[in-house]
Amino acid sequence: MQTLFAGTALVLGVAYLMLTSLQTSTVYYLTVGELLGRGASVHGQQVRVAGDVTRGSVETAEAGLSLRFLVQDGSGQIPVYYRGGPVPDIFGEEVQVVVEGKYGPDGTFVASTLMAKCPSKFESDSPTDA
Predict the structure, then answer these.
(1) pTM (predicted TM-score)
(2) pLDDT single digits (tens) 51-84
(3) Can you give the residue range of the structural domain that contains 59?
(4) Which has the closest alpha carbon to 54: 1, 93, 28?
(5) Strand-pair category, 46-53 with 66-73
(6) Do residues 108 and 97 make contact, with C-beta atoms less than 8 angstroms apart?
(7) How far apart are the first and last CA of the chain?
Protein backbone atom coordinates (compact mmCIF):
# COMPACT_ATOMS: atom_id res chain seq x y z
CA MET A 1 0.00 0.00 0.00
CA GLN A 2 2.83 2.38 0.84
CA THR A 3 4.51 1.58 -2.47
CA LEU A 4 1.33 2.45 -4.35
CA PHE A 5 1.02 5.75 -2.47
CA ALA A 6 4.69 6.63 -3.08
CA GLY A 7 4.39 5.75 -6.78
CA THR A 8 1.26 7.87 -7.18
CA ALA A 9 2.88 10.81 -5.40
CA LEU A 10 5.96 10.52 -7.61
CA VAL A 11 3.91 10.45 -10.82
CA LEU A 12 1.83 13.45 -9.72
CA GLY A 13 4.97 15.37 -8.74
CA VAL A 14 6.63 14.75 -12.11
CA ALA A 15 3.44 15.69 -13.97
CA TYR A 16 3.20 18.94 -12.00
CA LEU A 17 6.82 19.86 -12.74
CA MET A 18 6.37 19.13 -16.45
CA LEU A 19 3.20 21.21 -16.63
CA THR A 20 4.68 24.24 -14.88
CA SER A 21 7.89 24.17 -16.95
CA LEU A 22 5.91 23.99 -20.19
CA GLN A 23 3.77 26.96 -19.18
CA THR A 24 6.77 29.15 -18.37
CA SER A 25 8.72 28.24 -21.52
CA THR A 26 5.87 28.69 -24.00
CA VAL A 27 6.53 31.44 -26.53
CA TYR A 28 3.66 32.58 -28.74
CA TYR A 29 4.33 32.82 -32.49
CA LEU A 30 2.41 35.72 -34.05
CA THR A 31 2.22 37.67 -37.27
CA VAL A 32 2.57 41.45 -37.14
CA GLY A 33 -1.19 41.83 -37.59
CA GLU A 34 -1.93 39.42 -34.74
CA LEU A 35 0.49 41.25 -32.44
CA LEU A 36 -1.08 44.62 -33.23
CA GLY A 37 -4.55 43.12 -32.75
CA ARG A 38 -3.74 41.88 -29.27
CA GLY A 39 -2.51 45.30 -28.16
CA ALA A 40 -1.77 45.75 -24.46
CA SER A 41 -2.50 42.11 -23.62
CA VAL A 42 0.95 41.11 -24.96
CA HIS A 43 2.98 43.96 -23.46
CA GLY A 44 5.92 42.51 -21.56
CA GLN A 45 5.31 38.94 -22.71
CA GLN A 46 7.92 36.91 -24.58
CA VAL A 47 6.64 36.41 -28.16
CA ARG A 48 7.93 35.59 -31.63
CA VAL A 49 6.84 37.76 -34.53
CA ALA A 50 7.24 36.96 -38.23
CA GLY A 51 7.22 39.42 -41.10
CA ASP A 52 9.28 41.15 -43.79
CA VAL A 53 11.90 43.84 -43.16
CA THR A 54 10.55 47.09 -44.63
CA ARG A 55 12.63 48.58 -47.44
CA GLY A 56 14.67 51.59 -46.31
CA SER A 57 14.05 51.04 -42.60
CA VAL A 58 17.29 49.38 -41.46
CA GLU A 59 19.48 51.58 -39.23
CA THR A 60 22.71 50.33 -37.66
CA ALA A 61 23.95 52.06 -34.51
CA GLU A 62 26.56 51.72 -31.79
CA ALA A 63 29.34 50.50 -34.11
CA GLY A 64 27.12 47.77 -35.55
CA LEU A 65 26.06 46.39 -32.17
CA SER A 66 22.41 47.33 -32.52
CA LEU A 67 19.80 47.54 -35.25
CA ARG A 68 16.54 49.38 -35.68
CA PHE A 69 14.17 48.37 -38.45
CA LEU A 70 10.51 47.91 -39.29
CA VAL A 71 8.85 44.53 -39.71
CA GLN A 72 5.67 44.38 -41.76
CA ASP A 73 3.04 42.10 -43.15
CA GLY A 74 -0.20 42.81 -44.98
CA SER A 75 -1.82 44.04 -41.74
CA GLY A 76 0.67 46.63 -40.51
CA GLN A 77 4.19 47.21 -39.30
CA ILE A 78 6.08 47.47 -36.01
CA PRO A 79 9.41 49.07 -35.10
CA VAL A 80 12.02 46.58 -33.87
CA TYR A 81 15.10 47.27 -31.76
CA TYR A 82 17.71 44.48 -31.69
CA ARG A 83 20.96 44.60 -29.76
CA GLY A 84 23.78 42.36 -28.72
CA GLY A 85 23.51 39.21 -30.75
CA PRO A 86 24.78 38.05 -34.10
CA VAL A 87 23.03 39.38 -37.20
CA PRO A 88 22.36 36.69 -39.83
CA ASP A 89 24.39 37.09 -43.03
CA ILE A 90 21.25 37.14 -45.16
CA PHE A 91 19.54 39.84 -43.09
CA GLY A 92 18.52 42.86 -45.15
CA GLU A 93 15.64 44.77 -46.67
CA GLU A 94 12.59 42.76 -47.73
CA VAL A 95 13.97 39.59 -46.10
CA GLN A 96 11.56 37.46 -44.08
CA VAL A 97 12.52 37.49 -40.40
CA VAL A 98 11.38 36.06 -37.10
CA VAL A 99 12.17 38.17 -34.04
CA GLU A 100 11.79 36.97 -30.47
CA GLY A 101 11.49 39.37 -27.58
CA LYS A 102 9.01 41.64 -25.82
CA TYR A 103 6.52 44.16 -27.17
CA GLY A 104 6.68 47.38 -25.18
CA PRO A 105 3.89 49.80 -24.27
CA ASP A 106 5.53 52.39 -26.55
CA GLY A 107 4.89 50.11 -29.55
CA THR A 108 8.53 49.08 -30.02
CA PHE A 109 9.41 45.40 -30.16
CA VAL A 110 12.67 44.80 -28.26
CA ALA A 111 14.17 41.66 -29.79
CA SER A 112 16.59 39.34 -28.04
CA THR A 113 16.79 36.96 -31.01
CA LEU A 114 16.84 37.71 -34.74
CA MET A 115 16.41 34.97 -37.34
CA ALA A 116 16.29 35.47 -41.10
CA LYS A 117 14.49 33.01 -43.31
CA CYS A 118 16.42 31.71 -46.30
CA PRO A 119 14.70 31.99 -49.66
CA SER A 120 13.69 28.61 -50.98
CA LYS A 121 16.37 26.92 -53.05
CA PHE A 122 13.69 24.82 -54.67
CA GLU A 123 11.78 27.55 -56.47
CA SER A 124 11.43 26.52 -60.07
CA ASP A 125 12.93 28.56 -62.85
CA SER A 126 10.74 29.57 -65.74
CA PRO A 127 10.24 26.62 -68.10
CA THR A 128 12.49 26.45 -71.13
CA ASP A 129 12.00 24.71 -74.42
CA ALA A 130 13.98 21.49 -74.70
Answers:
(1) 0.72
(2) 999 999 999 887 767 899 999 999 999 999 998 7
(3) 27-116
(4) 93
(5) antiparallel
(6) no
(7) 79
